[in-house]
Amino acid sequence: MNPRVIGVKPLEDYRLELLFTNQERKLFDVKPYLSIGIFQELRDTSVFNGIRAFNGSIVWPNDLDLDPDTLYLDSQSIS
What does the pLDDT look like over 20-61, one tens digit per residue? Predict the structure, then answer.
C-alpha cells in the first residue's frame, strides 16, 4: 500500500502540494483532469482552492475526490 495523504495545499496553475504519511512532499498536476466530466467544476478556482485532506486522500467541497494511490504514483517529488 502506498503512503496516504495527510496534508494538501492548492497552488497556482491547478497543482497541489501533497504531504504523505511517510513525510514525503509531492506535486500533483490536476490540469489533465479538468476536461473530464465532473472534474470540469474544478476550473472554478474557488472550488479548486476548497480542497482538504480527508481519510488518506483529498476531497473538494463538491465531494469530488481522487484515489490516494493515483495521487502518490502520478505526482512528482519535491526536492
Answer: 999 999 999 999 999 999 999 999 999 999 999 999 999 999
Look up the domain containing 68 and give its range: 5-77
Domain count, the chain: 1
Q: Report whether 40 contacts 34 (CB < 8 A).
A: yes
Rounded alpha-carbon distances, angstroms, from residue 51 to 1, 68, 70, 79? 23, 14, 16, 23
Locate all alpha helices (DSSP H) within 9-67, ordered by sequence. 45-48
Is the whole-model pTM more than 0.85? Answer: yes
User: 48: domain CATH number?
Assistant: 3.30.2020.10
